[in-house]
Amino acid sequence: MKIFAENKRALFDYEVLEKYEAGVKLYGFEVKAVKTGHIDLIGSYVTIRNGEVFLLNAFIPPYQPKNVPASYEPRRTRKLLLKSSEIKGLAGKSKGLTMVPIRVYTKDHGKLKIEFALARSRKKYDKRELIRKREAAKEMHLFR
Asked: Are 53 and 77 in contact (CB under 8 A)?
């Protein structure tokens, strides 16, 4: 399993409750761009519309800019591929929570997958506490 992108900011800003894995519907040149590491998940999110799941605001620049259709939009909405039972369960649980993409990776014969999480936003004091714990762990590790 090779990881192409991670959304570390989402892990800092949100408390992860549940994780899900989905396929992504992409164009061929987008797949090439992602496999070379050209994807940005910061500021992107997942939503459910009409019984389908979509990834919004993920930036995938063209692999070769001269070989891309003129109408290509790098931040276009991309469909995520999930089973209908997973979508129904997710729709029931997502009330009042945010769905954020965490990472993009390959699995089983080079198929691109995206891991997204059902998450709750952290308060400012929770973020400070997380930073304090991290720094304390670093100091303890340094003084061993």
From this structure: no
Cβ burial 93-130 (10 Å sphere, 16+ → b, else e): eeeebbbbbbbbbeeeeeebbbbbbbbeebeeeeeeee
One-letter identity of residue 51: G
- Indicate the number of domains in the chain: 1
Residues in the chain, pLDDT under 50:
none
**pLDDT tens-digit readout, 48-70:** 999 899 999 999 998 887 778 88
Output the domain CATH number for residue 14: 2.40.280.10
Phi then psi for 47, rounded to 5 degrees? -140, 160
Q: Which domain holds residue 137?
A: 3-142
Cβ atoms 7, 101 nearer than 8 A: yes
| HSE-CB for 107 with a 13 A CA cutoff | 10
pTM: 0.80
